[in-house]
Amino acid sequence: MTITYDPTDPAYFDEADYRAEATRIYDLCQGCRLCWNLCPSFESLFDIVDTKYEGNMELLNHDEQDRIVNECYQCKLCYPKCPYTPPHEYMLDFPRLLLRADAIRSRERSKSLKHKLRDQITGDTDRSGAIGAMIPGVMNWASENPVTRYALEVTAGIDRRKKLPQFAPE
Predict the structure, then answer these.
(1) 120-159, pLDDT tens digit by residue?
(2) How far apart are CA 141 and CA 31, in angstroms?
(3) Residue of 67, 135, 111, 96 whose CA lies nearest to 120
(4) 8 Å CB contact between 90 and 28
(5) pLDDT band at 2, cuts 50/70/90?
(6) What CA–CA distance (Å, rounded) separates 130 from 125?
(7) Which of 22, 31, 66, 102 is most buried, most CB within 10 Å of its CB?
(8) Is 49 strand, coil or helix?
């Protein structure tokens, strides 16, 4: 197993290596749990291992690991809270692990247009924040409008019930 988060390293796209690293990191996470309330990824991880596997990370299947990856929205709140981030000997970097998983998945099979659009909308918070700051009234109206929400659900896969951020006029 190689701990690498460098996309130029050939081991970066090795799925077996990634799965071994994910198992190691998930095991460290479930033993600590400081991040339990930060995002849905951790809630799913802890729920799965507590109810199905009694803490044995080796039993997590690929679908369960992928569910954890899918639920992360890369807010990176877990990174400063984690006691095992580099330069700690455990070298735990949860956000970069999940970026690696997404890169492997993207390389193996191209993302659908819906997935790409969703990533563009939700992934570039600087851009959406800048647009929201310029026209907060329009953005707030659109985020609450049922027609707009339906269109977002159909085109980008963002559920119409999902609470979206509100933008302040100042």
Answers:
(1) 777 788 888 888 889 999 999 999 999 999 998 898 888 8
(2) 43
(3) 111
(4) yes
(5) low
(6) 8
(7) 22
(8) helix
